[in-house]
Amino acid sequence: MATVLSVSGSPSASSRTNRLLRHLDQRLTAQGHTVVPLDVRTIPAEALLGADFKHPAIVEATELFARADGVVVGTPVYKASYSGVLKALLDLLPQYALTGKTVLPLATGGTTAHVLAIDYALRPVLNSMGAAHIVQGWFTLDKDISLHEDGTLSVAATARDALTQVVDHFSAALGRTPVLAAAS
C-alpha cells in the first residue's frame, strides 16, 4: 500500500482540524496505508519565518514530502484562506514537491462562507506544486466536530459520511498510476 503524509496546518495542538486529521489517519491506516503525521506547528517558528531552507526541521519535512505517495493537507480557514503556518511551510518546499503525488485537501471553519477556500486558495497552490491528482476535498464545519473530555472525537452524521467518501476516494486513487500522454 501507499505511504501517506498527513499534514496538519493548524497552529493549535488542540484544534478541531488537527484532531480530525488524526481521526482520518486511523481510517487510512486501517485500509493498509502507512500514515506519517506532520503537524506544521511543531516546526520551529524561526525556521519557517526566517525561510531557513537548511534548518534540520525543514530538511526533514522536505524529505517526508519526497517519500510520500500521497499527501493529506488539512487546514483551518482564516479570513477565507488556509493558515499562515501552512503557507510558510509550502513556501519552503521545492517548487514541485508534489510531483507524482495524489493529494487530498481538507479544511475546517466556522461558517459555510469559507467553503470555497479549498478550491480558490489551497487547490491552486497544490496544483502549482505539481500534484499528479488532487482529489475532491472537503470542508467541515467546526460545529460538526465534537471533541470529548475522554479524548475521543465524533463527527456529525452528514459530515462523517462525506468525509468517509472523500477519504475512501483518496485511498482508492493512491492505487492508481497516472497515465501521462507521450509528447508527439
Describe the protein.
- The chain is an alpha/beta fold and 184 residues long.
- The chain is built from 6 helices and 8 strands.
Query: Percent of residues in beta strands?
Result: 15-25%
Shape: globular
Termini, distance in Å? 34 Å
pLDDT < 50 stretches: 177-184
* Series of H and E elements: EHEHHEHEHEEEEH
What is the structural class?
alpha/beta
Layout of helices and strands:
Elements: E1 3-8, H1 16-30, E2 34-39, H2 45-49, H3 56-67, E3 70-76, H4 84-92, E4 102-109, H5 117-128, E5 133-134, E6 138-141, E7 145-147, E8 153-155, H6 157-174
Parallel strand pairs: 1-2, 1-3, 3-4, 4-5, 4-6
Antiparallel strand pairs: 7-8
What keywords describe this structure?
single chain, 184 residues, alpha/beta, six-stranded parallel beta sheet, two-stranded antiparallel ribbon, 6 helices
Task: Kindly summarize this structure in a few lines.
This protein has 184 residues and is α/β, with parallel strands linked by helices. It has helices at 16-30, 45-49, 56-67, 84-92, 117-128, 157-174, and strands at residues 3-8, 34-39, 70-76, 102-109, 133-134, 138-141, 145-147, 153-155.
